[in-house]
Specification:
alpha/beta; 9-stranded mixed sheet; 661 residues
């Protein structure tokens, strides 16, 4: 009793169910197949690969007749090994052609070239490369040796340094193979000149084309050679009558009272009414000169009358001049009083009598750094002479309360230049200390300022950093058996090891200290302070002023002081107290001054002249102009000509005017 449509719907549902079931079975079968294949592949990856011989034998057993014949033939002709694989044809990337044969030819050519001699070009390149590597190794060794020497100098470790050099020589001797190797190496070195870094440097500076300085002239530069007036008066009179006739007339109008009064009255009414165009020296003695004047008097209507008159001129300030040097000083003072600076320079430059300590030697060439040892020694002697004369002048010491200074700033010891050399500065200090302690038999203390500032801002000026250990470790010839045995007061200690390598002598005459009131010992007679200077954020005024006060009038020598203010934050070296600091800096009297002059737009080079003063042999502030020329032998020479003479340190304007004359 069912409706026909019910059976149709039942059939359709059964068909849909069977179709879905078959599709699901197919998908499951497919997934199971893929999982099986993956498992098989992973297992195969861990199995060992069969050898080629095994494969051949398997083909021989189970292959076709044609495969069996090929494998048998292969194994009989190749000892059972598989044939080498054929090379793939590699096409050229540019031409897209087969270049396998060409590559094989190139490989064969390289193989043949490897068995023949090295080409000359390749050999030259190899030798050049080896030479460059050897030079680089030598330069590195020299740099390491220099660094080691600087470190040992800083630490004062000279004994171990000598042992270190000896050990290096022994190692080099053994490396060369003993006597035979060393002998061969020495023979090779004998053929080649020894290298000297100083000579190399001088060649770079062009020193070989410069005429060397006269060492004999340097040695006797400061010698006092002032003959008595009786012996040299004729030469002086001849010079004055030839070179300074017009200047003598002005001297008479200035230093003869009677003539000065007459000239003043007549010239007050009419300028030029009384004139002395020139004069000549009749005679000269130790108190003045007898002159013959040519006087020209001009009337109101211009009519001029000329006459001669004898007059006498006394030396200024009642001076008594009994030798050539004192007469020259008197003439310079009179010419300078008349405003005749170039004429005063002529007296120094051209009058060929008297001492020559005022001169600057020729051919110094101070733009060579380092300069020659004989030139440095001349500076040392020049400064030592000034110090010795100053210390023996009791009136000067009483007037200045012992405060004197030395300003010697060639490029090597100029603290404002990067050419500053600590060794040159300390050599100068050592010579000064030896002159004072040995010659004048006084106890001297050498002082170098310590750190300045507070807290984090504590420091030492760069040029003074590390100077104290070097000073103490210098060769003072004070060890037992040496020239100045027992000279040093304190023990000389190796700061690195703490070892005492020179025992001090309590009765010695040279000691060291810092810049402070505590450094002043009652036994010290002379104090030397090296380049005291302020720095950013700290002033040297307080420690230096306290030390000067503690010295109580004993000689106090400052070398190249820099006492100017350096205004800093925190009211340091500002307006407050500046007048007091300036007065303190000006209280030091110059006893020696040597300063090079440069162009305003150029720092350090070229050298245009010099300014010099010495209480020992040149009591006038003298401006020199440097002149350079090439002689007949094509050697460069230089000299310093006197341009002006002043009673005190000239201003920059005066120096410029003198250099332009």
């Amino acid at each position: 009793g069912r409706h026909p449509s019910d059976s149709t719907q039942a059939t359709s549902g059964l068909r849909f169910y069977l179709t879905s079931l078959s599709r699901l079975s197919t998908m499951r079968a497919t997934l199971l197949l893929f999982a099986s294949l993956s498992l098989i592949l992973s297992i195969h990856a861990f199995l060992p690969t069969p050898s080629s011989t095994l494969l051949q034998r398997r083909n021989l057993a189970h292959g076709s007749p044609r495969q069996r014949t090929a494998v048998s033939l292969l194994m009989s002709t190749n000892d059972g090994k598989a044939p080498p694989p054929k090379k793939a044809k590699v096409t050229d990337a540019i031409t897209q052609t087969d270049n396998s044969a060409k590559r094989q030819q190139n490989a064969q050519l390289r193989a043949r070239l490897a068995n023949v001699e090295e080409p000359e070009a390749v050999r030259q390149m190899r030798l050049k490369r080896e030479a460059e590597e050897a030079a680089a190794e030598e330069a590195a060794a020299e740099a390491a040796a220099l660094k080691d020497a600087q470190q040992r100098a800083k630490e004062g470790n000279f004994v171990s340094g000598r042992q270190n050099r000896e050990n290096k020589l022994i190692e080099q001797y053994e490396k060369d193979g003993g006597k035979a190797g060393a002998a061969g190496k020495m023979d090779k070195k004998a053929e080649e000149p020894a290298r000297d870094i100083r000579e190399t440097l001088r060649k770079m500076q062009g020193s070989e084309k410069r005429k060397p300085v006269d060492e004999e002239e340097l040695l006797h530069q400061s010698r006092v050679e002032s003959p008595p007036l009786e012996e040299c008066s004729g030469t002086i009179v001849e010079f004055l009558n030839k070179e300074l006739k017009e200047s003598l007339g002005k001297i008479a109008m200035t230093y003869n009272k009677e003539i000065a009064e007459v000239a003043g009255k007549k010239n007050a009414f009419q300028n030029g009414a009384f004139a002395i165009p020139d004069a000549s020296v009749i005679s000269m003695d130790d108190k003045g000169m007898a002159l013959e004047l040519r006087i020209v008097e001009t009337g109101f209507f211009g009519n001029a009358k000329e006459r001669t008159e004898a007059a006498r001129v006394e030396y200024p300030e009642g001076r008594v001049c009994g030798d050539a040097d004192t007469v020259k000083d008197a003439l310079i003072i009179m010419l300078r009083g008349c405003g005749l600076l170039p004429e005063a320079a002529k007296v120094l430059q051209k009058l060929g009598v008297g001492s020559k300590g005022w001169r600057i030697p020729d051919n110094l060439f101070l733009n060579e750094v380092p300069c020659r040892p004989e030139i440095r020694e001349w500076f040392y002697r020049d400064a030592c002479d000034a110090v010795q004369v100053a210390l023996e002048d009791e009136a000067l010491m009483e007037e200045t309360k012992g405060r004197v200074k030395i300003e010697c700033v060639p490029p090597e010891i100029n603290p404002e230049m990067d050419t500053f050399r600590v060794g040159t500065m300390l050599e100068l200090v050592r010579e000064l200390a030896l002159r004072i302690s040995i010659v004048q038999r006084k106890r001297v203390k050498i002082c170098i300022q310590g750190p300045l500032g507070e807290g984090f801002f504590t420091g030492v000026p760069l040029m003074l950093s590390g100077m104290r250990p070097v000073l103490e470790g210098m060769d003072w010839k004070s060890r037992p058996g040496e020239m100045y045995e027992g000279l040093l007061v304190e023990d000389t200690v190796n700061r690195r090891t703490g070892e005492v390598f020179n025992k001090g002598n309590p009765d010695g005459r040279v000691s060291f200290g810092d810049v402070s009131a505590d450094a002043c010992d009652d036994k010290d007679e002379v104090f030397i302070v090296i380049a005291p200077q302020s720095m950013k954020g700290a002033s040297i005024y307080d420690p230096l002023a306290s030390m000067v006060s503690a010295a109580k009038g004993r000689p106090f020598i400052c070398i190249n002081p820099r006492l100017q203010d350096i205004p800093s934050s925190g009211a340091v070296m500002q307006v407050g107290g500046r007048a007091q600091r300036i007065e303190f800096a000006n209280s030091f009297r110059d006893i020696y001054h040597y300063r090079l002059l440069y162009k305003g737009s150029t720092f350090m080079f070229p050298i245009t002249g010099a300014l010099r003063y010495s209480i020992a042999n040149s009591k006038q502030w003298t401006v020199f102009k440097r002149e350079s020329w090439t002689d007949e032998e094509e050697m460069v020479q230089e000299r310093y000509d006197v341009k002006a003479v002043y009673a005190s340190e000239p201003t920059p304007v005066q120096i410029t005017e003198a250099m332009q004359t």
